[in-house]
Every structure is written in structure tokens, then in C-alpha cells.
């Protein structure tokens, strides 16, 4: 992927202006939604190291990296739509991001909806876990 191409997270920005600095570690995400977008982009790139490193630290040891890598290798991510976000700003310690993403796996199209919980630790945002979806989503 070239830095001038549109970012896979569908923000409308170029990769260089959006997720690349976060994934390469030259810029820390200021908001939870920035980390969510970067994690989506990492899945499109099959970057399991970034996915692991941005998981809430107490959970990193329990991540089955081989399973995540296998799943990433059999999926092709198509679209990301951030539906809602709550908190998760520079001055917050927790944030929620509601999104839906479409992907192909084993020749079929799927839609994944998730309400993601993010937490900040020592100034760094991390993905914690999915929460139950709100009614009507």
C-alpha cells in the first residue's frame, strides 16, 4: 500500500494521514475511534503484532496469535462504518465505539457489528473487549 492511497479504514484520508502513523508507532491515537480504525486497518494488512500490542495489556498473554493470524489470512475486509462513539476523547479514560464492517471469508460476505470498549493506560488507548450490542442495532 502506498502512503497516498486512501486509508483502508474508509475515513476518506490518505493512509499516510490516517492509520499509518498509528500502526507504525510514530503517533499515538488521541481518541479511541482512531485506535479502532487503526486496528481495522491492521486486520486488512494481517498485522497481528499491532492487533496484539493494542489489546488491553492484561489480555495480551491470552491472545491466541496463531488463531488470529489464521482468521486474518482467510478474511478480506471491504468496508468500515463507524456508527456511534461515546467518550474516548483525549481527556477520557474509557470510550465506546459502535461500528459495522463487511468482509469476505470462504467465498461469502459477512457483516460484523460490534460495540467496542477501549481504555486508556499511561496515556495509551487499548482495545478491551466487545460489549453487548444496544437494542435495535
From TrEMBL:
<dbReference type="InterPro" id="IPR048469">
    <property type="entry name" value="YchJ-like_M"/>
</dbReference>
<dbReference type="InterPro" id="IPR004027">
    <property type="entry name" value="SEC_C_motif"/>
</dbReference>
<protein>
    <submittedName>
        <fullName>Zinc chelation protein SecC</fullName>
    </submittedName>
</protein>
<dbReference type="Pfam" id="PF02810">
    <property type="entry name" value="SEC-C"/>
</dbReference>
<dbReference type="Pfam" id="PF17775">
    <property type="entry name" value="YchJ_M-like"/>
</dbReference>
<dbReference type="InterPro" id="IPR032710">
    <property type="entry name" value="NTF2-like_dom_sf"/>
</dbReference>
<feature type="domain" description="YchJ-like middle NTF2-like">
    <location>
        <begin position="32"/>
        <end position="129"/>
    </location>
</feature>
Amino acid at each position: 500500500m502506498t502512503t497516498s492511497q486512501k486509508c483502508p479504514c474508509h475515513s476518506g484520508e490518505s493512509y499516510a494521514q490516517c492509520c499509518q502513523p498509528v500502526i507504525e508507532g510514530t503517533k499515538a491515537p488521541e481518541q479511541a475511534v482512531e485506535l479502532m480504525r487503526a486496528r481495522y486497518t491492521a486486520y486488512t494488512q494481517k498485522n497481528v503484532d499491532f492487533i496484539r500490542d493494542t489489546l488491553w495489556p492484561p489480555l495480551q498473554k491470552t491472545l491466541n496469535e496463531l488463531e488470529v493470524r489464521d482468521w486474518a489470512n482467510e478474511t478480506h475486509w471491504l468496508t468500515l462504518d463507524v456508527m456511534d462513539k461515546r467518550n474516548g476523547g483525549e481527556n477520557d479514560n474509557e470510550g465506546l465505539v459502535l461500528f459495522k464492517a463487511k468482509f469476505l471469508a470462504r467465498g461469502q460476505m459477512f457483516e460484523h457489528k460490534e460495540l467496542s470498549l477501549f481504555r486508556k493506560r499511561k496515556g495509551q488507548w487499548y482495545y478491551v473487549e466487545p460489549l453487548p450490542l444496544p437494542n435495535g442495532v
